[in-house]
Write a structure and sequence with these properties.
5 strands; 5 helices; alpha+beta; globular; about 140 residues
Length: about 140
């Protein structure tokens, strides 16, 4: 496991993520390539950049399907992010580099006792930031969550 997290996300950083209070101050910082990337819970202020990132990835020629109705406009995204804070059945985690949101991970667990161990996971990373380990860092943060 340690090899999977190195060098992008260190185990100690993820332990800090897990141990931090639920007041939105959880944060792990890791190196991705030569650029420092912060991995943190998404906040309502991230709505517009997340909608923009989703649209950019969806319009790539590969035809990725990455967004649901919650990522179609800023208002819906803000509502979704506000609702997700502090919930045990979902998380939205962002990767931020140089002040820009460059990646997103969304995780939604089943709502019923019989399916709460099942989750839907979506990860997107901006085209120009791929192959730097950002997706791996987001996955590691999801595991810590």
């Amino acid at each position: 496991m340690r090899a999977l997290l190195t060098p992008v996300a260190r185990l100690s950083e993820l332990t800090a993520w897990r141990a931090a209070s639920a007041n939105g101050k959880r944060r792990a910082t890791s190196e991705a390539g030569a650029t420092v990337v912060a991995i943190r819970p998404a906040e309502p202020r991230d709505a517009a950049p997340l909608v923009e990132l989703t649209r950019a990835v969806e319009t790539e020629e590969e035809g990725w399907l990455v967004g649901g109705p919650e990522w179609r406009d800023g208002k819906a995204a803000r509502r979704y992010l506000r609702d997700a804070r502090g919930r045990r059945d979902r998380a939205v985690i962002v990767a931020e580099g140089a002040g820009d949101v460059v990646g997103r991970l969304s995780l939604v667990r089943g709502r019923h006792a019989a399916t709460e161990h099942v989750a839907t996971l979506a990860v997107i990373v901006a085209r120009e930031r791929r192959r730097e380990g950002i997706g791996r860092a987001l996955l590691a943060a999801a595991e810590a969550w």
